[in-house]
Design goal:
With about 325 residues, this protein is α/β, with parallel strands linked by helices. The chain has eleven helices and 15 strands.
């Protein structure tokens, strides 16, 4: 399924309940908002619904500007599931401290929220709520739902203002995240298919080292540097095979239809052996990379030159 062919009856699962940042990001895309969206209790539930064909697409967080990767998503698509990335969406995130109406910060003895959100507010919690008990929930909105529906006095949640409106909570403190410019990146996942190139695209792969030896990562990165392909994200993760055995997850500019990208992946596959392709998809934002387009044009010209020489063979 390609994103440009979405129909109103398309089913998209997302990390719920209503009021999560995932829902907020999903609804920020007009074509996604026009589909049938279904909340699920956890990221694994969203991914399972996609694999079992309960939904056509899944929408889940993959990384945060402050806290880094969402490992449950990253590891699932890298190791456990055969899914393709269809799109990325980036959301500006403001985290608020919410509680029942009339609650003051001195009344709060427990903070309930999604672990990634809690981690983004460590300094605030340490300085303003040093004695509060911190409890994990499956999502920021689920925490807000519990506090509101169960009328949990003395319990606050870290969430967004929309969740507060939905579940009848007031904002005790605004923008409590530790760093300005907080953003979360989400992925639209499908069971198969690669969206057509738009001119502003990314690709993602997992590269498993053929051998864990000095210079192995450098050899991988060299394939991109030699072709002027910009790597936008690099993560190392244990392969689950043995201690010290790591693979690399890379996002980079360009589309599999670009000759220079295809050439890079061909070399990686030949030299490293095990490369998992996660997808080529529209990148968030307006401007594409001129570097990839120039490199692609240079590759095409070089290929035409080689073909012209070959045609001279008798």
């Amino acid at each position: 399924m390609r994103y440009e062919s979405l129909l109103p009856e398309t089913q998209i699962g997302f990390l719920g309940p209503k009021g999560t940042f995932a829902e907020q990001a999903l609804l920020s895309e007009a074509d996604l908002a026009a589909t049938q969206v279904r909340p699920y209790d956890s990221i694994p539930d969203v991914l399972n619904a996609l694999v079992t064909e309960e939904v056509d697409l899944g929408f889940v967080p993959i990384e945060n500007a402050i806290e880094g990767a969402v490992n449950v998503t990253q590891d699932s698509i890298a190791f456990d599931l055969d899914l393709k990335i269809h799109r990325e969406v980036v959301l500006d995130v403001q985290l608020d401290l919410l509680a029942l109406p009339g609650t003051k910060i001195v009344d709060i003895d427990t903070v309930l929220s999604f672990p990634v959100a809690i981690a983004q507010c460590r300094a605030f919690l340490r300085e303003r709520l040093p004695t509060a008990k911190v409890v994990a929930a499956t999502s920021t909105a689920e925490a807000a739902r519990q506090v509101g529906e169960q009328h949990m006095e003395g319990v606050a949640t870290i969430s967004n203002s929309r969740a507060g409106e939905i579940y009848g909570l007031d904002v005790v403190e605004q923008a409590i995240e530790d760093h300005a410019g907080n953003q979360t990146r989400f992925l639209l996942l499908g069971r198969n298919g690669i969206p057509a190139p738009t001119g502003n695209d990314k690709s993602s792969v997992v590269v498993f080292q053929q051998a864990n030896q000095p210079g192995s990562l450098l050899a991988i990165l060299h394939e991109f540097a030699a072709r002027n392909i910009d790597i936008t994200r690099l993560e190392s993760r244990p392969t689950r095979r043995e201690l010290g055995d790591y693979c690399f997850l890379l996002d980079f500019e360009g589309h599999i239809s670009d000759e220079v990208v295809a050439d890079c992946l061909r070399e990686l596959k030949m030299k490293q052996g095990n490369v998992k392709f996660l997808g080529s998809y529209p990148a968030y934002g307006l401007a594409g990379s001129q570097t990839v387009r120039d490199a692609n044009a240079d590759w095409t010209q070089a290929q035409e030159w080689i073909e012209a020489l070959r045609n001279q063979m008798e």
